[in-house]
Design goal:
single chain
Length: 445
């Protein structure tokens, strides 16, 4: 019989109400950061009243590694976008496609996937979404397959690295997983998923991707600041090298990003810090900080420890089954709701079991794959998806052609099958590669 204390009930109620507000953001119109802030404040006050949580503990609950890394990468990306280099790269790929819709999909999809390894998926689609529309209009082909592929592959590519997706940052920081370990274990399933999505898109859009005669893309791309773009690429290369060696250096990932940013701003004397820092997504950072405080309060109440104890026998006795169950549950929930709150709620449960000596290494990988791949399951499964849907709807309205809008029904017919295929591949990978994913001393160093 589970004995729930008053602090557990109160903190649990605050968590549920906060998550309901976050998950219904599209219905009531309030930004999810507002509900997270309200939940964080409520759990601190409740903690003081019932004696289980204090403002000092709330500050300690914030994972500043995640917050700083996100903020710094936002500034780096802002500098790179200002150079016009991404536009030049996209137009170069369009010309290299030679008018072949299939080749264009492969080139664009590969570029999106690779860039998503280091930049978050939202930034990637914000860069490529408008470019895809311009290129497809010039070539007189439908942008729908390319926009959908950009969303699917940005979500997928982000799963491969520690810095590719916010949930990865949270998982890596909590579990003590370094950049190399994360990439070595998540790279193979992401590679399989990348191949599968590019392959299946050909059959999901047979008409749009048939290699009939099309007009070639002949536009000339112009850099806004070519020297700064080149410097940015060099600094990004240095950052990758430092990420590879960050554990040997004794640096947290945010320190690597901060070093790269510092070098970049000194190499570029004309970069206006006021201008580039204005692109910081402050509501997202506030959301993360508030979410850490909220989950920290629930953890201090003892509720998450009890939840972890319920899963402990399953993980110990049937670790493979538990990992596959977590993969699919995480994926389905991430297709329906935001994957960040779900990840934040699961982390303390797994971390608590890890502290008890239970090896949950495969569970961490299953969680990362589930929340990453699952975002492809619906048009609201990730912020990147919502952005792509929004610009397609805007295009449909501007052109007066409703067929250019990515509707929920279209996503269900085209995007959801792609997500299911990647999940089956991930399931097979976990099943056959269980020993490969199992790490003896993960998080114990």
């Amino acid at each position: 019989m589970i004995e729930l204390t008053t602090p557990m009930i109160v903190s649990g109620a605050i968590l549920i109400l906060t998550f309901l507000g976050i998950f219904t953001e599209h219905l009531h119109g309030y930004n999810r950061a507002k509900f997270a802030m309200a939940g964080a404040g409520a759990v601190i006050i409740a903690g003081q009243i019932y004696g289980f949580y204090s403002p000092e503990q709330a500050l300690q609950a914030i994972d500043w590694n995640v917050v700083f890394l996100l903020a710094i990468m936002m500034i780096v990306v802002s500098i790179m976008i200002s150079t016009g280099g991404f536009e030049h790269m996209a137009e170069y790929l369009a010309k290299k496609s030679g008018g072949s819709p299939t080749r264009l999909l492969v080139f664009m999809g590969t570029a999106v996937t690779v860039i998503s390894l280091l930049l978050d998926n939202v930034t990637t689609v914000i860069i490529f979404g408008p470019l895809i529309i311009l290129i497809c209009q010039a070539m007189k082909i439908s942008p729908i397959p390319y926009l959908l592929a950009a969303a699917l592959l940005s979500d997928t590519g982000g799963v491969a690295t520690l810095v590719g997706d916010p949930p990865n940052l949270m998982i890596g920081s909590a579990a003590g997983i370094d950049f190399n370990t994360f990439f070595i274990h998540m790279g193979p399933p992401v590679f399989l998923a990348w191949l599968a999505i590019l392959f299946v898109m050909k059959y999901l859009f047979p008409k749009e991707l048939s290699n009939h005669h099309t007009l070639k893309f002949e536009s000339v791309a112009r850099y806004k600041n070519k020297r700064l773009w080149q410097k940015s690429l060099v600094v990004m290369g240095l950052m990758v090298v430092l990420f590879v060696f960050h554990q040997k250096l004794g640096w947290e990932p945010w320190m690597v990003a901060a070093t790269a940013l510092t070098i970049l701003v000194f190499l570029s004397r004309k970069v206006d810090l006021d201008s580039v820092t204005s692109h910081l997504e402050t509501p997202l950072l506030m959301f993360f900080i508030s979410l850490f405080i909220l989950i920290g309060g629930v953890e201090q109440s003892g509720l998450l420890e009890i939840i972890g104890e319920q899963f402990k026998p399953l993980i110990i006795e049937h670790p493979l089954g538990a990992a596959l169950l977590l993969l699919w549950v995480a994926a389905i929930l991430s297709a329906l709701i935001d994957n960040i709150p779900f990840t934040a709620a699961m982390i303390p449960v797994l971390a608590g079991l890890q502290l008890q000596g239970v090896n949950v290494s495969v569970m961490w990988w299953a969680l990362a794959m589930g929340v990453g791949m699952g975002g492809n399951g619906s048009h609201i499964g990730s912020t990147a998806n919502v952005y792509i849907v929004t610009i397609s709807e805007r295009l449909a309205k501007q052109t007066g052609n409703p067929e250019l809008a990515i509707t929920p029904a279209l996503w269900f017919r085209k995007g959801t099958p792609a997500m299911l295929i990647t999940l089956f591949l991930c399931s097979i990978f976990i099943w056959l590669g269980y020993d490969y994913l199992y790490i003896e001393n993960l998080g114990q160093g």
